[in-house]
């Protein structure tokens, strides 16, 4: 029992603490309508964070997710799709985002290059292509279907929240029920041992980056629907936020006990804390400082718990 409690992600205890704080200071924060608003806000970053979980568990990182989201947004908002079914633009956007992740994986595995350097370079290239594609003037032709995905509701439940749930279930199955997930954890824990054991280490890393690209693009679709217009810089803050959510979920670079459930909890905690800070009147500089402190505290607490376990 004690070991099980120690292995719970920091986000679990953080959500309890934040919930108690909100109950005493801002009771309306825990009302059902407000929680549904938080769910809609958390969906896009939650999906991106799930994608980031694959690469972090595999001792890698993707710093191009923000540029991926922006590129997806620019595709969806471009006027060239006005004569086509909205589904076509969504498929093209998802394919582009998935290819970005695949390209990251190829460069990291084939060139043995640092994932930080590769994904930063990819982000710069994508941003440049986005400027060329739009001429520096992002469109506003977001289809009603995309807006419904980002803003719509089924009863009182946001459609985006249901989409996030579907992606969370898929990520859980991949990480905990499929061979790919076992390969990810094994390669992330000790890539040399995994390689000598005959596991497809390179293909596993390539699959992780490809999945991350697809999940980032999917989160970009939801965020585009929520915003409703094109934006060159959309998703720039999702790089740090997605990494924060993964670490809050208990993952550490080189494997960990995070996974899909931990990342969902980490996303929920991150979005809740940032909104609670807004209610308390804390500005963006304070939020960034808090986010950095949360990352450091979560990593220290979780690592200490594993050592004591």
Number of strands: 2
**Fraction in beta strands:** under 5%
Q: What is Rg?
A: 19 Å
Name the helicity range. over 70%
SS summary, helix count: 14
**CATH class wording:** Mainly Alpha
Structural class: mainly alpha
Shape, per Cα inertia axes: globular
Protein name: ABC transporter permease
Membrane topology: Multi-pass membrane protein
Keywords: Cell inner membrane, Cell membrane, Membrane, Transmembrane, Transmembrane helix, Transport
Subcellular location: Cell membrane
Write the layout of secondary structure elements.
Layout: H1 2-6, H2 10-25, H3 32-56, H4 65-77, H5 86-110, H6 115-134, H7 144-151, E1 153-154, E2 157-158, H8 159-177, H9 179-189, H10 191-196, H11 201-227, H12 238-248, H13 259-279, H14 284-308
Antiparallel strand pairs: 1-2
Helix pairs in contact: 2-13, 3-8, 3-11, 3-12, 3-13, 4-5, 4-6, 4-11, 5-6, 5-11, 7-11, 8-9, 8-13, 9-11, 12-13, 12-14
Protein name: ABC transporter permease
InterPro entries: ABC_transp_permease (IPR001851)
Organism: Hoeflea poritis
């Amino acid at each position: 029992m004690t070991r099980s409690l120690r292995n719970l992600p920091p986000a679990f205890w953080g959500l309890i603490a934040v919930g108690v704080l909100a109950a005493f200071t801002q009771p309306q924060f825990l009302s059902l309508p407000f929680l549904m608003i938080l769910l809609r806000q958390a969906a896009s970053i939650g999906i991106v964070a799930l994608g980031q979980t694959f690469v972090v568990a595999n001792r890698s990182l993707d710093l191009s997710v923000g540029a991926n989201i922006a590129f997806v947004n620019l595709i969806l908002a471009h006027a060239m799709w006005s004569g086509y079914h909205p589904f076509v633009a969504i498929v093209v956007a998802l394919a582009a985002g998935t290819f970005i992740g695949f390209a990251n994986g190829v460069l990291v595995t084939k060139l043995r290059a640092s994932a930080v350097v590769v994904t930063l370079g990819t982000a710069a290239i994508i941003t440049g292509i986005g400027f060329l594609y739009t001429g520096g003037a992002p469109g506003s032709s977001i289809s009603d279907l995309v807006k419904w995905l980002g803003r719509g509701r089924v009863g009182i439940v946001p459609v985006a929240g249901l989409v996030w749930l579907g992606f969370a279930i898929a990520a859980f199955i991949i990480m905990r029920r499929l061979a790919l997930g076992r390969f990810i954890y094994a390669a992330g824990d000790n890539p040399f041992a995994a390689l000598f054991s005959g596991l497809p280490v390179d293909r596993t890393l390539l699959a992780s980056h490809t999945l991350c690209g697809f999940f980032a693009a999917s989160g970009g679709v939801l965020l585009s629907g929520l915003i409703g217009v094109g934006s060159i810089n959309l998703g720039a803050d999702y790089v740090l936020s997605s990494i924060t959510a993964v670490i809050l979920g208990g993952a550490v670079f080189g494997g960990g006990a995070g996974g899909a459930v931990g990342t969902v909890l980490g996303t929920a905690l991150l979005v809740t804390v940032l909104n609670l800070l807004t209610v308390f009147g804390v500005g963006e500089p304070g939020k960034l400082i808090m986010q950095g402190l949360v990352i450091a505290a979560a990593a220290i607490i979780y690592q200490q718990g594993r050592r004591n376990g």
